[in-house]
Specification:
It is a single chain. The protein is an all-alpha fold. It has one domain (about 5-345). The chain has helices spanning about 5-15, 15-25, 30-60, 95-120, 130-150, 155-180, 190-215, 240, 260-285, 295-315, 320-345. Helix 1 (about 5-15) packs parallel to helix 6. The chain is globular and about 60 Å long. It starts with a helix and ends in a 19-residue tail after the last helix.
Length: about 375
């Protein structure tokens, strides 16, 4: 379970009646508005996981013989995303997952429009600025157009757009859900540690970007050992490895040609994973005396350790499909936990600042 779910339920059950009465005429009831957000979070998480599964399965993760079958792009699959819903798409691989992804994404789009309209009508009663629901709506439109017009796997920027758009949408909806469910008061501890929580969230986000970039460029098979890459890593390959406009070279049979830069992508992702885990361990230890953060910190530690273990297991077992999909799911959970921690350390709008210490005279 993602942290904060129990807090959300408790907050909804104990919310004062006045909070619901004042909003009823504006949005059709605050509980309905919160339910729309909560359901959207769940559907977005499912969509992100399904998208990761489909993307990994398409490029041959877990295929036989490994790695000869990996990163073999079939030109027949480079069609519009809606093809799977037509007669000619009946023979497409993983069709069930594709159809589920399409229908869930369509339902999610309707919910996002409802959230946006309701958020605008709430006016000053919003717990987040209008920029947040607006961003969620724009991301939804962007992902819809991206999936319909450019469902190609030979352009890493398109793959990254789908991945990062989904993660950003999930994070923003989760932030809205947290802010609606619980009022946070300002305190000295929160003010002191808020910036460090932001650093942790930024490191997790960067790790997701690097993992997605490595996957989008089909670098997974280029480092079969924990510290062994083929071909050898070279500093001269850094510009190519992290060039946003880099092209994916294919041979005459449509197979991705391994370049020297691919191993560098994969190894950078692994090294940052260790650095991120070390930072989160320090942050959890530093905040362990704050009992109100206990559940969030425990979940953060569990997800961080789980990611490391899964990462090593994926290498050890040659990247099995379900384990790598779970690795993506845990990345989403880790991001949500970091957002939950930032929420718990960020005062709600209108909260009263903590009293000044004795002898302190503000200027």
């Amino acid at each position: 379970m993602v942290p904060g779910a129990s807090d959300t339920t408790a907050a909804l059950n104990h919310a004062p009646a006045e909070a619901f009465a004042g909003d009823c005429c504006l949005t059709g009831g605050l509980p309905i508005y919160r339910s729309l957000i909560s359901l959207s979070v769940l559907l977005t998480l499912i969509t992100v996981i399904l998208s990761a599964y489909i993307r990994l399965a398409e490029v041959g993760i877990g295929c036989e013989p490994w790695p000869a079958c990996y990163a073999q792009l079939d030109a027949e699959l480079e069609k519009k995303g809606v093809t799977v819903l037509t007669t000619q798409g009946q023979d497409m691989a993983h069709r069930g997952a594709r159809i589920a992804h399409r229908y869930i994404a369509s339902i999610l789009g309707v919910l996002v429009v409802g959230i946006f309209v309701a958020a605008l009508r709430r006016g000053a009663q919003r717990t987040v600025g209008v920029a947040v629901p607006t961003a969620v709506l724009l991301i939804t439109v962007f992902l819809s157009l991206l999936g319909y017009y450019t469902p190609t796997r030979s352009n890493p920027l398109i793959t990254m757009g789908n991945l990062l758009g989904g993660m950003a949408m999930l994070g923003l909806l989760w932030w809205m859900m947290q802010r609606e469910a619980e009022q946070i008061e300002e305190n000295a501890v929160a003010g002191r540690w808020r910036v460090w929580a932001r650093v942790g969230m930024a490191m997790i986000a960067l790790q997701i970007v690097l993992g997605g970039w490595s996957s989008a460029n089909y670098a997974s098979a280029n480092c079969p050992g924990l510290i062994d890459c083929q071909p050898e890593l070279r500093v001269a390959d850094i510009p190519d490895a992290f060039n946003p406009a880099r092209d994916i070279a294919l041979d005459a049979n449509g197979k991705v040609i391994a370049s020297e830069a691919l191993g560098l992508m994969s190894m950078t992702h692994r090294l940052l994973a260790l650095l991120t885990a070390a930072y989160l361990a320090w942050l959890v230890r530093a905040l362990k005396s704050q009992r109100e953060l206990g559940a969030t910190l425990a979940t953060l530690a569990a997800f961080s350790i789980g990611q490391l273990l899964l990462g090593v297991s994926n290498i050890w077992f040659a990247l099995p499909l379900l384990m790598l999909t779970l690795h993506n799911a845990l990345a989403a959970g880790l991001l949500l936990t970091a957002i939950n921690l930032l929420h718990r350390l960020s005062p709600s709008a209108g909260s009263v600042p903590p009293p000044s210490p004795p002898g302190h005279h503000p200027r």
